Amino acid sequence: MLGELPLPIAGLMCDEKAEVVEDKLGAMKKEAIHLGVSKGIDTLIIFRKK
Length: 50
Fold this sequence. Notes:
mainly alpha, single chain, 1 helix, 0% strand
């Protein structure tokens, strides 16, 4: 795993400030592009352990 954004509020929302969330998401998107994912493809899909 290269990054994560915990969603502790009902598994849908984060309890961090918007700026912190934006920074984390930006870093995750940059890493995805670095790994070869084309720009414009949303790679941030949520998987939940069963």
